[in-house]
Predict the structure.
Amino acid sequence: FPYRRDEELWLFFEEQLFGAPHARIACAKVLENGSLDRPQTVLECPYHLSYPYLVEEGGELYMLPESHQNKSLDLYRCVEFPSRWEKAATLVEGLECADASVFKRPDGWWLLASMRTSGGSSLSEELYAFRSEKLAAPGWTPHPANPVAIDVRNSRCAGKLFEIDGRLFRPAQDCAGGYGKAVTLHEIVRLDEGEYREEPRATIPAKALRGLATLHTYNCAGNDIVIDGQVRRLRLAAAFASIASRGGVCMPHRRLRTKGADISLLRALAAGYYR
């Protein structure tokens, strides 16, 4: 998730170190040459954290990370940017929610999240909505029509909601062909206490982006587009080294890297959305 502060671009992301039992939230500044500065830990709990959704309200910066293993949605307030945060409220408790996204509308604050119910569905099949008068308030009210969507193609959120010309758009993962096979930009055409309805406007398949196997988030910060997905990397030399070692031969090996995703293509695929 990108965030601009004092004309600097920062990235907040899930970080799981090799061998660690769960992930934490970290951040890094984007340098002028486009590379990342050294990551620093932002938030760490005794359970998995991911999807650090950032939102501002009343001059304060808040973060709503995913913590489905703890069966809670906890909102944190930034005390000292970027690494000191304190818990502000538990918005939803006792439910296993994934990739929650919050946003403000004229009638109050809304929250959208996919959720695993007692029926044993995955975290990518059902979309639930909640509402509150205030952001940092406990016990948000569930939408009476929950789940507002039951479709593996659009239930799981994939980035921050944003508006263009008064139209509200929600990035969502299309997991029909597997987890994160595409991201679809949906326009929310109706959202009130009686109904939720959205329409797909543009789809960005992971396979269309050079080097990507999956695509999980799509976020904008000004003219910058940030995506997150999985990259396949060839390790043929390592495989040969493994085979040779069985025969008593020691071979040096190195990791072969692939090129990153083609961001210009990403913009082109989303052109229908921008028009």
Summary: Helices lie at 236-246, 263-269, 271-274. Residues 107 and 192 are 8 Å apart (CA to CA). The radius of gyration is 20 Å.
